[in-house]
Design a protein that fits this description.
By secondary structure, this protein is α/β, with parallel strands linked by helices. The chain has 15 helices and 36 strands.
């Protein structure tokens, strides 16, 4: 009898152990369909049929064997191709937009290791002139938009016939500008074919879109270029450009390129119009169509002159002396326009720089050359970058070219200094452009007041705008005539003293080695002796941003938020801030941050930050507690309690985190994505929907992981098109959850 009781007791003990152990979530792959329906709302299919993290991480641009573009409707494609060629040679002299219609396509990407990826895409003819059409080989320069997948994180790119961009010189110019820290597209040689025909060499060049902006460490914002409608369509026959018929230059106005971002919220619309207004002032209040009035682009535009000097030293003048070739990104966080390289037509290998005799403020360009010379160049690294992009130069050859580049900068630096001159005002130059029937639209996104004017702004009338119209379209129609969104108020265009309004939207307080941007009068207590600063937030739109050119050491930052009221309807505000407390573009050591309560999208947001944080203590966040973007930081200890969404969100950076304790995370305990590399020594998460989520090409190592009361302990998956599989390794794993862990095909998970 005792023996039977003993056996029953042992059986019960075994059952209890099994039940207890079953609560520990193991890295079993859940069915992808089941997961899509039940667990991960933002999951998208695995990249390239499940290519592994190790495979894709080992690939480089020179591992591409072939890009084949197949166009199912090939008959219509070649008919359009021939008509474009005919109208750019015999019946015209440029490629009209009518021939740049999108065609559905399939992009087959083949690597040297025979791995093949197939992506749906849209393609169209690219370029202005007939050199982009090779009728002998039946190929054209292409503009490609991948609808799925990516090529090294790029979804929008051009395949350019090399001769249209001067081949090796384009690769050299884009590579060195990127090496110097300028915004410059990744550009490299590839073999490509159209509809399976003979392969030819093309220049693969990414476009200035969201992926390029974020890859370079910026938060997405307005991308601007010149609307070329009145540049190219200069004759009654729209297939001819006839500048010889006019004694005045064309009307040039700006446009927003990324209209989807601009229209995604009212705040983004306001930021985009702010940028467009300033860009239009720089185009229209200038002495000629070969230079911008840079002073209309902000209070500090020295970096633009550095960019222009570097381009001129590369004899890539087409990028900086032809205004309708300009491309700019507006960085709202710094209220700066960041110029981007585009179609410079460099002649660096054969010609010296030339001086514009009518260039205003030549001394500012000279100072830009001086600053460009101060930027360090790593010959060995640059050689490797050029080799990777398809230029097989030796270090000796690269050094020779760099010496020429520096010599050219010395020439620009020595340009004769003159007095500082001003560009003409709008009133002074408004009659110096060709007469058109253009309608300029002025619109206020707060009041919805709107009116249209002629190009001289002396004939205006009020109108009503349908709220469903996309005002940022390249062209809209009002009363049967073309109209273009131009600014919020014509007085801001006419007034020569009116500059970028974004630079006046906050109060700047300088405190020892750093600056505080105080948005909407936050109360501040400063204790310099103990290096402590406390911010008291009491209203919805009050926020703080900390920035500095120096290293902050041993400071403590405290936020006390007492605001209780309506939530934000948009993730970011009209200053592009998501955090109640933001650290931006700053380096620090042994910093401590404390924040109690926050109604913003992020309680604390770190952007472009380097250095060490000793302690981070965040409690009672309505949404995310801590969001770190594009940074390189070591954090000794983080304590987070009660976040309405994620406790920790990491993106685009390198992070070393020692001890993390998270309690009550509404969604994810730690969300690590967007090509982040993170090493976490010890993480404890109590009560979360997903304890640890690793996404989008990220690489994470965790020493000790303890999780309790989790919906799911671990998820590895792909969320955004421009990224791929991820990797996670955990040495000491202990986590209990309701659901199985999910590891998407291609992602790699290791647990010891």
């Amino acid at each position: 009898m005792k023996k039977n009781f003993l056996n029953i007791g042992l059986l019960i003990l075994v059952i209890l152990i099994v039940i207890s152990n079953s609560e520990l979530s193991t890295p079993i792959r859940a069915s992808e369909n089941e997961t899509l329906n039940n667990q991960i709302e933002d999951l998208i299919p695995a990249l390239c049929s499940g290519i592994s993290y190790s495979e894709i991480n080992d690939l480089k641009t020179n591992d591409i064997k072939l890009i084949d573009v197949k166009i199912p409707n090939s008959a219509n494609w070649y008919r359009n191709f021939y008509n474009a060629y005919l109208h750019s040679t015999e019946k015209g002299n440029y490629i009209n937009d009518v021939f740049k219609q999108d065609f559905n396509a399939v992009v087959n990407l083949v690597y040297n290791n025979q791995k093949k990826c197939t992506y749906k895409a849209e393609v169209r003819i690219n370029g202005d002139l007939k050199d982009h059409l090779d009728v002998n080989n039946l190929i054209a320069s292409l503009d490609v938009k991948l609808e799925e997948g990516n090529i090294f994180g790029i979804t929008r790119f051009k395949l350019l016939i090399p001769e249209t961009r001067r081949g090796d010189e384009e690769i050299f110019a884009t590579t060195i500008l990127k090496h110097l820290g300028f915004l410059s597209p990744r550009s490299f040689y590839v073999n490509a074919s159209l509809n399976g025909n003979q392969a030819h060499t093309f220049i693969f060049q990414e476009k200035l879109v969201k992926e390029m902006i974020e890859y370079n460490g910026y938060r997405e914002g307005p991308v601007l270029e010149t609307n070329e409608e009145y540049v190219w369509n200069s004759d009654k026959d729209s297939f001819y450009r006839r500048d010889d018929l006019f004694d005045k230059p064309a009307v040039e106005i700006g446009r927003i390129v990324n209209t989807r971002w601009a229209n995604s919220s009212k705040e983004n619309k306001i930021i985009s119009l702010e940028a467009l207004e300033a860009f239009n002032k720089s185009l229209i209040q200038t002495t000629n169509n070969r230079q911008l009035n840079n002073e209309m682009l902000g209070l500090d535009v020295a970096h633009i002159y550095v960019f222009e000097a570097a381009n001129r030293a590369l004899v890539a003048n087409h990028n900086v002396t032809v205004n309708h070739n300009r491309q700019m990104f507006y960085n709202k966080l710094s209220n700066e326009f960041i110029p981007s390289y585009y179609d410079g037509n460099p002649e660096f290998f054969t010609k010296p720089p030339f001086e514009d005799i009518d260039y205003l403020n030549i001394q500012l360009l000279s100072e830009g050359a001086k600053k460009a010379l101060e930027i360090p160049i790593d010959i060995k690294k640059l050689t490797s970058e050029l080799n990777l992009n398809g230029l097989p130069f030796s270090e000796e050859e690269v050094e020779k070219y760099i010496n020429v580049f520096k010599s050219n900068l010395d020439i620009i630096k020595s340009y004769p200094k003159g007095i500082k001159l001003k560009h003409p005002t709008f009133t002074e130059q408004k009659n110096n452009r060709r007469d058109t029937n253009i309608q300029l639209l002025f619109f206020d996104f707060d009041s919805y007041n709107s009116y249209i004017c002629n190009q001289y702004l002396d004939n205006c009338r009020d109108i009503e705008i349908n709220k469903d119209i996309n005002l940022f379209n390249k062209k809209i129609t009002i009363d049967g005539l073309s109209a273009h969104l131009f600014a919020s108020d014509k007085e801001k265009i006419i007034n020569p003293e009116s500059t970028l309004i974004g630079s006046k939207s906050f109060e700047t307080i300088e405190i020892e080695d750093f600056k505080v941007r105080n948005y909407n009068n936050v109360n501040i207590d400063l204790d310099v002796k103990n290096k402590t600063i406390t911010f008291y937030i009491k209203e919805k739109n009050q926020k703080i941003l900390i920035t500095s050119d120096n290293v902050l050491v041993d400071w403590s930052f405290i936020v006390k938020n007492s605001y209780i009221g309506e939530e934000f309807y948009s993730r970011s505000d009209r200053n592009l801030l998501t955090g109640c407390l933001t650290f931006y573009d700053i380096e620090f050591q042994n910093i401590k941050i404390y924040s109690d309560s926050a109604h913003c999208e992020d309680n604390v947001n770190l952007i472009n930050v380097d250095g060490k944080i000793s302690f981070l203590h965040i409690v009672n966040s309505l949404n995310d507690a801590l969001d770190i973007d594009s940074s390189n930081v070591y954090i000794e200890e983080i304590y987070i309690n009660n976040a309405g969404n994620d406790c920790l969100d990491l993106s685009y950076g390198t992070y070393v985190l020692n001890k993390l304790e998270f309690i009550n995370c509404g969604d994810k305990g730690a969300s690590i994505g967007e090509s982040s590399v993170a090493k976490i020594s010890d993480i404890s998460i109590l009560n979360s929907n997903i304890a640890v989520a690793v996404k989008d090409s990220s690489d994470v190592d965790i020493g000790k992981f303890y999780g309790m009361e989790a919906g799911t302990c671990v998820q590895l998956y792909r969320k955004k098109q421009e990224f791929g599989p991820s990797r996670l390794k955990i040495l000491n794993y202990s986590c209990k959850s309701e659901n199985l862990n999910y590891i998407q095909a291609g992602s790699e998970y290791e647990e010891n």
